[in-house]
Amino acid sequence: MNILFLLSLFLFPIFYLLIIRRRRLLLKRLPPGSLGIPVIGQSLGFLWAMRANTAEKWFAERAKRYGPISKMSLFGKPTVFIHGQAANKLVFSSDGSNMSNHQTESMKRILGDRSLVELSGEEHMRVRKALASFLKADSLKIYVGKMDEEIRLHLLMHWQGKQKVTVLPLMKTLTFNIICSLLFGVERGARRDSLIQYFQHIMAGVWSFPVNLPFTRFNRSLKASAEIQRILKQLISEKRIELENGASSHQDLITCLLSIRGEDDQELMSEDEIVQNVMLIMIGGYDTSSVLITFIIQILANDPNIHAAVLTEQEEIKKSKPSGELLKWEDLAKMKYTWRVAMEILRTIPPTFGGFRKALEDIEFEGYIIPKGWQIFWVTSMTHLDDTIFPEPSKFDPARFESPESIPPYCYIPFGGGARICPGYEFAKMETLATIHYLVTQFTWQLCCKDNGYQRHPLPEPNQGLPIEIIPKEVV
Fold this sequence. Notes:
Layout: H1 2-28, H2 43-51, H3 55-66, E1 69-74, E2 77-82, H4 85-92, E3 99-101, H5 105-111, H6 121-135, H7 137-140, H8 144-158, E4 164-166, H9 167-184, H10 190-205, H11 217-244, H12 253-259, H13 271-302, H14 304-319, H15 329-333, H16 336-348, E5 354-359, E6 363-365, E7 368-370, E8 375-379, H17 381-384, H18 425-442, E9 443-447, E10 454-456, E11 460-462, E12 467-472
Helix pairs in contact: 5-11, 8-9, 8-18, 9-13, 10-11, 11-12, 11-13, 13-14, 13-16, 13-18, 14-16
């Protein structure tokens, strides 16, 4: 005992000195910048810039001052902001060994810690594979007709007979109904109405301060999240019974996930994982697609040449089909120019502003160290608006995407990149193209206001929600 005690007395100062030395070396290699005021850091400035739609400029000025990497504090945690092609590659090519998915505390507490954006490594691969079994192109083909019916019914209920509509809220209604139909198998009625009300409260608090006080956005979001989880768990119980009684496993996303079995013939995903990942896809399929479709409608009103090219493409598809026939997967594959317009919208106004990761170990980047445990934050538009990658980046030009392979890897990232590309990409593409097809072939429109500005809440939203005057094609 005496020898061990003496040895510990000898070794402790050495270990202590090594720790101190490592800390000093780490501090010397930290990125430039300031962590700001404790807890608050740069969070208020960031949120203010998001609300004022100056966040791109806010980060661009920071990048100009500090370069491709700098330290800051966001939402109470030390953060390293990185940008550029190399930064995107670092984030999206990671195998999960050196960094993990990571969201703001508010997002994590609202959605939970078992969603795809929180999982890493083998767990991330397992859940991603399960979601992809429903969301990949080959699986989605059988759902085109069901989506088509939702779009037709929406236009009949909300567009036909109207002289003026506000696009964004209607597109949110449409995309949510598509989600309820294809992902949940929930028909129109009280349950759908409850879901959309709760979901709107969730979205309002996703990027808020995680202070759970009464009457705050975060408090309302937490309560809404609890209600949606209750409804989804009830749905899961109902779907299990339906499957036991011989129902098809291809009815919707929930039945598909319940049907996937592991090696031990147990469900591959837990109930919490199904609930939280269904909620995650709700966010992606609801807000992202509705925002994209809304901005496409805006550009079609502002640019006659683009409108004419999209209309020509869609009219040719319409004429090639018997009257009243539903769209098929093959029809969507022909909408190449329309999707190039959508891709240019996603470049200039990416729905997702940026994202977070968490360093699982010290990471070296651009000669600096990102310390273990720190947040990593990147901004999508930093490469999208880089004139060395996209010449004349402020110019709207769908021709940029005639040869997507000419765009350097990890520079165009509206859906992520590499192995981390969003699994809902094909779903978003499908509902966007199908919706635009019916809109341009059934209506003409013009903007009620010439203000092309938008704000972020946190997704971009055209001012006033994009009110337009519409004329059915039959009247023209």
